[in-house]
Design brief:
Layout (H helix, E strand, L loop, with lengths): L2 H19 L4 H17 L1 H17 L4 H7 L3 H16 L7 E6 L5 E8 L2 E6 L4 H12 L3 E5 L5 H17 L7 E3 L6 H6 L8 E5 L2 H10 L12 E5 L5 H13 L8 E7 H17 L3 E4 L1 H6 L4 E2 L13 E7 L2 H11 L4 E5 L3 H10 L4 E4 L19 E2 L7 E2 L6 E8 L7
Parallel strand pairs: 3-4, 3-6, 4-5, 7-8, 7-12, 8-11, 9-10, 9-11, 12-13
Antiparallel strand pairs: 1-2, 2-16, 14-15
């Protein structure tokens, strides 16, 4: 396969499809989403069979447990893909919305209209559910998409792609509105991020190495986050039972995700009470604990945390713990070490909660809730195409609105400028 020629053809088809999608009515887009969801349901066994091939190949390649977990499809995850598409159908279509219409002294009306970005390229690793989520979100927001999944999920992605193609055809939309690249050659990525004439934005989802490469080499804008070093701070005025439950969930609900807590901060005045109870639960779950000297004085059998630990996204059953003097030290630690993804405070003091919300500069900031909620599906976006820790053009979980832009519109009646 001639990769440059193949990718040029992909880009041309995507641009043509984007022109059609931009003016496609909401009903037609929803019809496609419904048809795709139905295909995923009907092809359930075929999806599991394709995924089993990827899992077996992953084990042969000695992929670690976290990567295998990301790669796996099961009944629940297929159901979540379907539910995500159904949620997207229920969401308001942002395309064509006109806002901020105001009359100017000259008599013209000036406002804004929400429009698609155009062609969205998504480069992702492991998780095959991203194929359905990304395709659905791009479709509902009127964007054509080019999806390049990781080689480890090739069979799963192609099986999902077939469901998408069938759904698009049934809705009489161009099958090229969603294209899943049919090669594992890495040169395809280099071509995709170097086609500004065809691709309007790139969204990478995967390891830090992939995202750094894309950010450095892309010739089109990138929506991204590098890593998820997420914190939970247990305040000195936290409810102990609530704090233990939330902190335990934030780490153990799932290890290999970017919104999993990697560092636990605990106010020193309650550390003696909270930490032994939490440590018992963590150890029962197989979590390795690493702590500062003050934490080790309470939990004498844990390893020492190094400077490197505070800046590490483990994506594994490992947790760093630091005992802090209070809210000020907790916020300062987060400012120094957070990746600005998601940080949470557990407290019954609303003044402390408000300070945390105001002073912690992350894309999601939470009060009395697990960091694992930082997710487009949980936020009611239907799903997410990624999470951005940048401040332009989208921040946090990127759903429909994050996949759109705005253009100025002017309404006149023969007006001329004097």
């Amino acid at each position: 396969m001639n990769i440059p020629e193949y990718m040029q053809l992909i880009g041309q088809k995507a641009r043509q499809a984007s022109n059609i999608l931009a003016s496609s009515p909401t009903g037609q887009k929803n019809q496609a989403l419904e048809a795709i969801a139905l295909q995923l349901e009907q092809q359930h066994e075929q999806l599991l069979a394709a995924n089993a091939k990827d899992i077996e190949a992953g084990k042969t390649k000695n992929l670690n447990a976290a990567l295998l977990d990301r790669l796996a499809l099961n009944d629940s995850r297929i159901a979540n893909m379907i539910e995500g598409l159904q949620q997207m159908i229920a969401l308001t279509d942002p395309i064509g919305q006109m806002t901020d219409l105001n009359y100017r002294p000259t008599g013209i009306q000036v406002g804004k209209m929400r429009v698609p970005l155009g062609v969205v390229g998504i480069i992702y690793e492991s998780r095959p559910n991203v194929t359905a989520d990304a395709a659905g979100l791009c479709l509902k927001s009127g964007n054509a998409s080019v999806l390049r999944g990781g080689s480890e999920a090739f069979n799963s992605n192609q099986a999902i792609a077939q469901c998408i193609q069938t759904g698009l055809t049934e809705a009489r939309l161009p099958s090229t509105a969603v294209q899943v690249i049919e090669t594992t050659d890495r040169a395809a990525v280099g071509e995709l991020i170097s086609m500004p004439q065809y691709v309007d934005v790139i969204i990478p989802r995967g390891g830090k190495g992939l995202i750094e490469r894309i950010s450095q080499e892309a010739r089109v804008p990138v929506i991204k986050h590098l890593d998820g070093i997420c914190h939970t701070y247990i305040d000195d005025q936290a409810d102990p039972e609530k704090a233990i439950n939330v902190a335990y969930n934030a780490k153990t609900q799932r290890y290999g995700t970017c919104n999993t807590m990697e560092t636990l901060l605990v106010a020193d005045s309650i550390a003696q009470n909270i930490l032994p109870q939490l440590a018992k639960k963590y150890k029962a779950a197989g979590v390795e604990l690493r702590g500062c000297s003050a934490t080790q004085a309470i939990l004498s059998d844990i390893n020492a945390a190094t400077d490197e630990d505070w800046d590490t996204e483990y994506l594994a059953p490992i947790l760093s713990i630091k005992t802090v003097k209070g809210l000020d030290e907790a916020i300062e630690h987060i400012r120094q070490h957070s990746s600005q993804h998601t940080d949470a405070i557990i407290t019954e003091n609303w003044s402390n909660a408000r300070r945390f919300l105001t002073e912690v500069d992350s894309s999601s900031v939470m009060v009395n809730a697990s960091t694992r909620f930082a997710d487009g599906f949980e936020y009611g976006l239907g799903a997410e195409i990624g999470i951005s820790t940048d401040k332009f053009h989208a921040r946090g979980p990127v759903g429909l609105e994050g996949l759109t832009s705005q253009k100025f519109i002017v309404l006149g009646d023969g007006h001329i400028r004097q």
